[in-house]
Amino acid sequence: MTISEATETIFTSDGRLTALVALANSDGETQLHSRGWTGSLTLGVDGAAYRIEVSAGLFRLSEPSEPETSGDCTHVVAVGTGEQWSTMLQTVPPPGLTDVFGGQFLGMTLTPRNLSGELRLAVRRVVELLRHIVNGTDPTPQVVQDSRPHGTFDAARGRYVHLHIDGHDHRIYFEEAGSGIGLLCQHTAGTDGRQWRHLLEDERVTSRFRVIAYDLPHHGKSLPPSGVAWWAQEYRLTRGYLMQIPIALANALGLDRPAFIGSSVGGMLALDLARFHPDDFRAVVSCEGALYAVPDHAAPRPNDGTLTVGSDPAQHAASMMSFMGATAPESYRHETRLHYAQGAPGVFPGDIAYFRGDHDLRGQAHLIDTARCPVHMLTGNYDFLTMPLSERAAEEIPNVSFMAMPGLGHFPMSEDPERFIGYLLPILDAIAAR
Hints:
16 helices; Carboxylesterase (Modular protein); AB_hydrolase_sf; AB_hydrolase_fold; Rossmann fold; 18% strand; AB_hydrolase_1; catalytic activity; 2 domains
């Protein structure tokens, strides 16, 4: 058997594609996202291509052909090497190869690139079904059994507080639980404080910390500032504006040098706060953080070399699935996606303007005084684009504590909260002991 013949069996062995079509036609998730799809999905490997026709969500096999590219958004072509496909179809795929969208950063090709959110989810699920077929695993959606007695109240309570920032009134929503040292929790770009709901209910934390998860203006339940025609101007987050929010919130709530934790945008903000406001915080925890968040030219990129920022919340939400841990609970991964899908158009790109512009601590890491404000960094290995940037920051910040989190991705607190808390608790112990 030639190498080409061996790699082709990835799709043809044991009637895998026939089984895939049958499963796709009966799978609720696939049908939910493909009912408006009439076109095709072509899987290419080492010169061979296998085409599946789709008609309003009905899948059927077509004849094998040569791989082609497509400019039609309904005809999707995903091409990789035999090794790439074999790795992606493992029971637990490694970072970057959990789906074909992440695979673009590691050499796979996908055309067209600008797929809708629904089509992204459909393609992702079809590949996921193929993984189940290859490994003989159960494709039934897995839910988390965490129900509580009827009428039970969560510990978290929500309130609004008015903060005057840059001369304007901001009605900021926050939820809090627990008592003790203040712990301000900042969400990722384009979403809101719901990402921290598990931390708010964890008595291992709330027994010692007053946990406060807030929504940035324009996010979640926090409105844009009053007195501003925000609908007539582009939303762009700046470092100066962003840093004022946790400081103003801490002052309004009477917190004495709280600790701060944030992920992604919040992780970048943690480092800026340590650099410019070390006396306002007793410690910061930077999750998925970096000194500068634009990947350099040596970093993985999509096959055409471009990096895009989604302005469509549903499309962008679907793309975030590529950066979550492969073993994270399925229901929590989709809940994390849901947070993104409910964001307002233009908010995510506006948030990204902060860490692709104002947030730039290159050449300043040595100025972060960790004796005054200890810095802790945590980055999930499935956040494969951020990991090298976090490692570089950890090398340059004096006396920083840094830990990689195997199995976790870009949203550790919401995609896999129980695994995440195992990394966070020792840090909180250290903060409480100061």
